[in-house]
Amino acid sequence: xxxxxxxxxxxxxxxxxxxxxxxxxxxxxxxxxxxxxxxxxxxxxxxxxxxxxxxxxxxxxxxxxxxxxxxxxxxxxxxxxxxxxxxxxxxxxxxxxxxxxxxxxxxxxxxxxxxxxxxxxxxxxxxxxxxxxxxxxxxxxxxxxxxxxxxxxxxxxxxxxxxxxxxxxxxxxxxxxxxxxxxxxxxxxxxxxxxxxxxxxxxxxxxxxxxxxxxxxxxxxxxxxxxxxxxxxxxxxxxxxxxxxxxxxxxxxxxxxxxxxxxxxxxxxxxxxxxxxxxxxxxxxxxxxxxxxxxxxxxxxxxxxxxxxxxxxxxxxxxxxxxxxxxxxxxxxxxx
Amino acid sequence: xxxxxxxxxxxxxxxxxxxxxxxxxxxxxxxxxxxxxxxxxxxxxxxxxxxxxxxxxxxxxxxxxxxxxxxxxxxxxxxxxxxxxxxxxxxxxxxxxxxxxxxxxxxxxxxxxxxxxxxxxxxxxxxxxxxxxxxxxxxxxxxxxxxxxxxxxxxxxxxxxxxxxxxxxxxxxxxxxxxxxxxxxxxxxxxxxxxxxxxxxxxxxxxxxxxxxxxxxxxxxxxxxxxxxxxxxxxxxxxxxxxxxxxxxxxxxxxxxxxxxxxxxxxxxxxxxxxxxxxxxxxxxxxxxxxxxxxxxxxxxxxxxxxxxxxxxxxxxxxxxxxxxxxxxxxxxxxx
Lengths: 336, 336
Description:
The structure is a homodimer.
Chain A: E1 3-7, E2 10-14, E3 26-36, H1 38-44, E4 52-53, E5 57-66, E6 86-89, E7 92-93, H2 99-102, E8 113-114, E9 127-131, E10 135-137, H3 144-147, H4 150-162, E11 170-174, H5 178-188, E12 193-198, H6 201-208, E13 213-216, H7 217-222, H8 224-227, E14 231-236, H9 243-250, E15 251-259, E16 267-269, H10 272-276, E17 280-283, H11 289-297, E18 307-312, H12 316-324, E19 330-334
Parallel strand pairs in A: 11-12, 11-14, 12-13, 14-15, 15-17, 18-19
Antiparallel strand pairs in A: 1-2, 1-4, 3-5, 3-9, 3-19, 5-6, 6-10, 7-8
Helix pairs in contact in A: 4-5, 4-11
């Protein structure tokens, strides 16, 4: 099968990659659309030492199911995962038996694999294999190109899953990449006083059109004194090492900083201000698919304006090239 | 009056320091006993650039009150703050009008002073002045030498004030200084599975006698694989820069690290593991006096075994010298 593969020779288009062999309780999904994420770019830099098929954001159609127990995989709306169903998929696969899996924390399984990130081929291919329990039917009203946003949108919903946002809170989101933008859109649903800070006016326009307040980073820094220690919550989604220190300066005493950025390298910082101001720092990663799918179905969050480009499989290099430009948002690969 | 003073000439005993002049709604307290805290040692190293009378832990007797509104200062048990009352005192004095004071966060007042730490003379003197709203009557069953522990014990209660400890949690406290020990004793009240880790067998014995499990740091590090990522909550009270990284390695995914140490200097660390494991870090400083006084009154926490030495005012240098030894716990200055 066709696949976008990363190995010691770099990024490659492989036309005859072996089709996945299903294990018990797995499904084979024919990929329609895959998304490129910041994590994919980090993998190309050596993150996690991953080799194999790239990609963890997708929408596709179930082509084969290998289970003896279909009843186990009925969705809450009694929609069944069956051959022909259009689906999206959670990326983490748990062992089912470690202390975290037994707590229901599959995404923190000590032996977990994650498609396209660690120990398991990803979705930038004709087919991807995933445990049936990872799959969710895509609602009819959500197109393939919208559904591919389910995974990053779920990561944005992880913020409200972890932290109680009061509607009277002042909230700042740092970073106008896809994750920062989706986080701002999710947080804005609470009717809190949400501001997205970024570097690119065109990206900020995308969220401003959905009634989120925006501010250029340079303007924020110019008004430093006004904003210092004034936000109840700051979401750090800059993807850069110095984002944390800025977030720490902007959050009020007893406030919260949510960390979304995974960045290579070390920070040189003092933790004592966290103690003095009793700040809470919350690490935040993958999130719940159900609310993301509901928001997409109800169109309360519009993701189409975040699409910067759609490329065919054989143009994957161009797609990655566009991603590397700070000006792009979500770039998709079309496998249909 | 006699006072233990720190200024550019270092630590000094001053016999003729000016007695505090009371502002509106303040009380003059004749100090009976004062405690020496780790923060005091840091002040001697230049922390906060403080100059003036040292000390923020005390028990004393109200000698004078300057207010037009006595009724405002009735305690919840209808015990009045009156001349002759034995009291302990919260250390932070708020302006009453900034955004944090208006939220009820006096201890985070943007213009706060704190006795013996910032902008206000401390309690290692014959007299200390404090706002009446900072004072709490010491229960009859709590001696002066026990009552002086109210402030650090309140800081330990701040952990359970901020974080919900489940009785089924595995909790690790790192650090066998006074704050680590008091935190372990407070956390142990929840009947969670609490372990205190320290370097000094004699200090660990003090908490072991109060039915807290203890472990030598060297034994913890030897069993590293067993303990890694296994605690629901880790309280970092080592007072050292490398305590955080150890805490981070010991806490389970989705667990919490409470930071109690204020340490000069920067950490060189990566925040990405906090994101991947969705760890919450909670900065924690001063705490509520009422539960601390209740625990002292009911003797559910015995603080007397933590007293390593009691010195008269004119032996204050020896007292500070003993404090600097890692083997000591709480050292008191007797002003009676």
